Amino acid sequence: GLGDVYKRQYQRRVRGEQSTMLRIRQLGDPILRARANAVAESRFGTPELQSVCDQLVEAMRHANGAGIAAPQVGISDRIFVVHGTGSNPRYPYKPAIPLTVFINPEIQVVDSTQFDLIEGCLSVPGFRGQVRRHLAVRVTARHPDGSAFEVHASGHAAGTMQHENDHLNGVLFPDIAAPGPFGPDALMTWAAFDEHYAPVFLPVAMALRDAHPEPWRLVETERCTKRPKLVKQGEVICAELTWTGSKFERDICIAVDDQGRIGSVGPRQEGAVITRALSGKALVPGLVNSHSHAFQRGLRGRGEVYPKGEGESSFWTWRQEMYKLVERLDADKFFDMTRQCFVEMRMSGITTVGEFHYFHHDSEVSYRFDELVVKAAREAGIRIVLLNAFYEFGGFNATPLNPSQQRFKTNNFDEFWSQMDKLAGLIDSSRGEALGVVAHSMRAVDLPTIQKLHQEATARGMVFHMHLEEQPKEVEDCKASLGMTPMAALMKSIVVDSKFTAVHCTHSSAEDLKRFIGSGGNVCICPLTEGNLADGIFEHMQLCQGQVCLGTDCNARIDMLEEMRLLEYGQRSVSYTHLTLPTKRIV
Question: What is the average pLDDT value for the chain, to the nearest integer?
Answer without folding.
Answer: 89
